[in-house]
Amino acid sequence: MFSKESQFINIIKQDKQLKINYKKIKNKQIISANQASFLLQDNFLSKDIIFKVDTLKEEVFETYTSSIIININERIIRAKNSYNKNDTYCVKLNEEYNLLMKKDSLFEFEHYYKKIGFDYTFSPFHILNLHNEQNPKPNSLSVLIVNYHAYILIVNYKNDIVFYKIVKISSFDDIKTSSFYENEQVGQKLYDEIYYFELNNLIKEAVKEYYSKKNVSFIDQITILYNQKQLDISQIKNFEDELLMEINYHSISITESLYELSHGSSNKSYSKVKVKKKSFFKAFVSVALFTIIMALAYISYDRYKEANMNKELIKQAHSLNEELILPNHIIKNTEIKKVLLRHFDIIPYNMVLKKLSLDEMNSFILIDVLDNTTYSKLMQNRFLKYYKRSSIEYSNTDAIVKQAIIQNKGKKFSKNRALLVLPKYIQDEFLLEKRVTNQIKNIFPEDTKIEYLNTFSSNIVSYNYSLSLKISQPIELFNLIDNLNEEVYSINISYPLKLNVNEEDEIEVDFLLQFHQNKKAK
Fold first, then answer.
1. Do 2 and 120 contact (CB within 8 A), yes or no?
2. Which of 111, 161, 316, 493 is the most core-located residue (most Cβ within 10 A)?
3. Three-state DSSP class for 230?
């Protein structure tokens, strides 16, 4: 299936984010691998997400999309057993067992992602079974933690599945809405304790339930697979002491597992591969380009010479026009939004962000953290993908909650920048500074502090402002950036940009704002 050049995209919903991982394959070799992350708004897919996926699909004809479906009522049956085909969908788990899911549940999932459409939809049980097949451990219990659900399988001495269970576990948001929550720091520590207790308890309950059956084998060892929250070594040791069993605890890549499953049997997927149709528009463009090239071949040498003589005049006129082209505010705003999203994506759940400062080349992050190994394990390499240098410095290493400063220096600029068509700006009149200030007031919240700084004047006049406002969630800032991009004026956010969490848990945002217009109105 994945011959010549193809692309594999997997889309995974985690907390309030949607993560898109995509890799291109040529001659069975991975030639590139990237990821993108989007904040989810309410309970629908934003236009940015759909646009991103559609753009990726347009780049490579042989593109395949995949995801996982979480459903606590999913069942495992022997392949030879019957089921109600009227309201239940059945897919293969392995040679001996099938998975069952209610059609209503599958419909809800497909409806949510209908504007994307998946070629492959797998269950976490598929991932857990794949791991067990690649790492057979007879008489063992294995747990996969994904999206605050624990998927449990127990196999006997022949590695046959003899027990399964799905258990929902608490998320940090559940703790925040409880009566025990006081603040972010205490809440995080409380969540760590609750997470450990719930994981410990659900394994004990599964073992107890399994042993209550007749003629069962003894469980010799337990494997816990995680892809988000991590336990420390002392907690694992406590597990072993309490359960009197060996615990294998390590991370698993959902992305790589989905990639591997997609190369296997298609009858394991809850969705089916869509037939790839060639784009008529692309074919038309190809024919048109060929026709144009053939026509150009017949242009006479005299016409070519005449065009060459006028080349310098055209170049000069083009240069003059470029001087009057206003800065593309969509590119500038979108770039800053991407930088912010990268930082939020890299900072994990067990860190509390207190301050974030960005300038053109560097970033400064003040955080509270419980585990001083998190940066080296999860963050540094990801920051080095975007910056030349990344370092951390702790101010109180002996405290339970440690404060640290992360500094990233020397931003790396992408060589392949997306080209956007210049927006059609309103340029029929020259706006004075006072009018521009009123325009800015209409865009931003009422309590925004707006300070006019100066004017830079050449062929283009730029008004520079300093803005300060308070928000409760980062998504509010991203919405403001999106609103700016819809403006018919060249108006963009500029560095430095600072976010600071105050004592009321509000986010104070400070940044520069620029308004550009031609010196002479058209």
1. no
2. 493
3. coil
